[in-house]
Write a structure and sequence with these properties.
single chain; 218 residues; mainly beta; 2 domains; seven-stranded antiparallel beta sheet; six-stranded antiparallel beta sheet; 5% helix; elongated
Amino acid sequence: MADGKVTYSTRSASGEGTFPAYTQNRRGELVVPDWKHELAAEGRTFLVSNAAMETALAVAVTSYVDTTPIFLVDIPTGTTMVPMEVILNQGGTVAGGVITVLITVDGINRFSSGGTVLTVRPGKVNPPTSAPSSVATAYSGPTAAAVNLDRTLYGDILVQGVTNTAASILNHNVRWIADSPTYINGPGSLVIYTFAATTNASWFFHIKWAELPTSMVD
């Protein structure tokens, strides 16, 4: 097996089954990317965002009902999902009251019917043809099956508004980024709820996750 090697200017790419030199810095310390960057470099991250980037998405939900999420991402058996980040910025219609946001996971595929199928895109722009493809299915505004596993990753209450004043920016949007990974062995789901009295908020959204064969993590 090869020893370590200092590589600042160039990084060699080795094929499967080879034993390349470990990357070290000039102090002899091992250089290891964090888990998020490694998944991104391997082409294992995927995302959904607005179909028309200039148009905030509106889904008419005015109270919590477990079968009416705003967003739903199902992952099938044999694949493990790792939620990485959820970004929701208000735009368009102002909500009719404070906005409750819940980011949850479940241990079954929750999609039941309806909604809009979202295009799942690779997190790596122009990935090589050898990069893995997503097997998840994402929806906005679907009807979901009832909650099976009640597990919340994030919850908050936001001030409604779409102006750029300092008061509206404070506690105005969602920027949830996973500091430690949550593994969802398929079948499972990432389920996101937002609701406000009278009128729900409209969202510019970005939802990112990673996918791995379950055999790699179990």
